[in-house]
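Pimeloyl-ACP methyl ester carboxylesterase: structure tokens wanted.
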Amino acid sequence: MDAVNEKHITVNGIELFYEEYTNPTAKHTLVLLHGFLSSTFSYRRLIPLLRKDFQVISVDLPPFGKSGKTPSFMYSYKNIAHTVLHFIEMMNWPSVHVIGHSMGGQIALYMMKLRPDLIKKGILLCSSGYHKRLKWPLILSSYLPFFHYYVKFWLAKSGVRKNIENVVHNTALIDDDMMYGYLRPFLNDEIFIALTRMIRDREGDLTTKMLNEIDTPCLLIWGQYDKVVPLSIGEKLTQDLPKSKLIVLEETGHLVPEEKPEEVKKYIDEFIAEGILV
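Answer:
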């Protein structure tokens, strides 16, 4: 029977929190990366399905969840990707499959570009794409004293429930456990200081040219009614990634691991079992 361990490890100068679901009979290791303003919590309905057949590692990307939030860390996508890659090397896994939701998908793409030898296949769940770097007036404003209070106000303005309603198509799924699970990481003000640093460091998503150079096979799974990262982004990513295919889940929003975990698991199983895309 597989088991779960919650652990912290220092990697690349920051404390990384991860959940490890060991499975002695598994032939494949999956590394799960969540989206912006989220945590390992977003995979709570998918992990119980994945762990039956795979060794599963779910990571809190800094500065989110229970990972470190030090303002001295560089929160660029490239450096976060380097941190996860270094973590994989420290764990002595020869290669893994990486699953990334939303922002986590963009981190996964950086990982594939930086170290294709470590990543067998990529599964992108409503991955972010084609965002430019934030505009200079906002970046410069982030150096103002107490700017993190503005970040906190901006995130709190719409409220937890409204934010969740924006990422799920079936709002009947929203309950107190879900709302608290997504709220909990923001009860500590350190996250807002780190997010201020992230405004400065975030370099934008990979360009079309960079995506064209990624040779790793990728499965893209998208919600038909994704309001956060529209389906058109998934269609463009499929065109720009040389070895990729797109699956669209009907009556589904942005948070596909919450809304359709059984369907996502089925497509992951098929993708990992099949041969290399050409």
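DSSP finds twelve helices and eight strands in the chain. The longest helix spans residues 77-90.

Cheers.
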